Amino acid sequence: MSEIFNEANMQQALEKYIPNGESLLAGIHALSHETDIKCLFGKCVYSEDRLIPDENGYIISLNKKKHSTYDIYIGITQHYLVITECERNSYLYEFDEVADGSGKDIQKVTSDLLFTDVGTCFPLGDVKNCEIKKAIW
Q1: Residue 5 gets which letter from DSSP?
Q2: If 0-12 CB within 10 Å is exposed, 13-18 middle and 19+ buried, where does residue 128 land?
Q3: Is the dihedral of CA 126, 68, 62, 110 positive or negative?
Q4: What span, in angstroms and rounded, lies between the C-alpha atoms of 73 and 63?
Q5: pTM for the complete prediction?
Q6: SS3 for 55?
Q7: pLDDT of residue 1 exceeding 60
């Protein structure tokens, strides 16, 4: 458990998801009580653990959820909010094929994308809600 509070471990965990050209400005340890990430991905199909690019594929709505307390690291770069779990966790994944994605932000899948990598890096301009509360348990 003490490894979670090690700054070097935090930096290593966050750096995995930091885009090229960005650098970590600040990072903290936090407890997450609820995660609900919704994304649209285009020209892909899904398998057991990943989205796979497919020119004849679909627009897929992916919802990644977790409703329990777990340790996370939160990092900020010049242009991104980066979140990663401190220890491996399980999530609920829900999928829907979307008939029409016009007017919505659809990410094209260009290489295999593991579900575990979804929802780890967000452009600051795209963050609509990130609620942080001070709490001691």
Answers
A1: G
A2: exposed
A3: positive
A4: 21
A5: 0.82
A6: coil
A7: no
pLDDT, tens digit (0-9, with 9 covering 90-100), for 10-44: 999 999 999 999 999 999 999 998 889 889 999 99
Residues in CB range of 113: below 8 A, 6 or more apart: 41, 44, 50, 51
- Cross-strand bridge partners of residue 82: 75, 121
* Closest listed residue to residue 65, CA positions, set 45, 95, 40: 95
Tell me how far apart the alpha carbons of residues 26 and 75 are, in angstroms, rounded to a whole number: 6
Q: Looking at the chain, how many residues does it have? A: 137
Q: Which two tokens stand for residue 48?
A: 């057991």
Distance CA 64, CA 56 (A): 24
Joined together, the tokens standing for residue 51 give 């989205």
Residues 6+ apart with CB under 8 A from 127: 81
Return the structure tokens found at 125: 């301009």
